[in-house]
């Protein structure tokens, strides 16, 4: 056992209730609270990002291919899709799968209310498994191989406004000349928490849109491209654009819903500021506490110096002492932070307003890599901060310190 470690252990074993014991506990608590706050912040932010992005990606894909047009209408210009185009897109590196879609504006009418909606026509390539997380009642519409389906899924907001439920039938009038209508059966109700979808989009069969518009079986409104890694969206956009004809437009979902992604980037910036402030406070606390411990042990430092102890040895003694407090604080910080995140993830004790946060509870996304990096960063930064009060040791005069009271 090294001498600095031995002396550090001896001075750490103070009587219960002594001033040093209280100071040590304050140091451990300050580190623990700071680390727990950082762990919770990063996991909540990661949960927000992953949950919101997953909601958008499951509804719109990562890249959207549509007919190039200056119109801002929800109803797309039609695309006659060919096998060569679809096979070429599927062969691109990083592409997971493709979905075709078509929009059609209409009015849902009940006996008492009328609601404007956008029917999003989908086919059997739609990933119902990924969308299942949004279904709150019933099941996703089934699309027949022949003809067209009349089953639809509504959002909870539309269903509540029109007082509809699973199993009901509703009349939809499609806006065109001449107007056409269909009787649709509600088989499912979904909720994403995203107003752009929940306020106006209903999900149905793309063949119904084709039938209303008089399109052929190879005509669609657009193609949604899903990637293996959303982080490669910029590179994939360039590849997809080069693989399509000049009359087609490729749009990133992050550009189409730029307000939501800007909000997420703003959250990232706030977390960086919060992280810096918490780390500064934790480091400042350690500097203050170690300085107090040094002042309390001034007589001991004077005695050791008079016996020939070098400043370097004394610095190592208090550095080991401070490092021990940091390690204990990190242990309790991990226990506190991870326990809170586990409880929130399992029991969802903190609710949110979906109208403002796109979800009804605080989300948690466990990220072991982030936890390890946070631990290392907190330990390193607070350990570096310990060198500030250690510089005081070299200024302590042995004669004056022995008589220090």
UniProtKB/TrEMBL annotation:
Annotated ABC3 transporter permease C-terminal domain ranges read 273-398
Quote the Pfam families the UniProt record gives: FtsX (PF02687), MacB_PCD (PF12704)
Subcellular location per UniProt equals: Cell membrane
**Membrane topology recorded in Swiss-Prot or TrEMBL:** Multi-pass membrane protein
Record field: transmembrane: 21-45, 271-293, 313-332, 370-393
Any idea where the MacB-like periplasmic core domain is? 26-237
Keywords from UniProt, A to Z, are: Cell membrane, Membrane, Transmembrane, Transmembrane helix
Family, similarity comment: Belongs to the ABC-4 integral membrane protein family. LolC/E subfamily.
- The name on file for this protein is ABC transporter permease
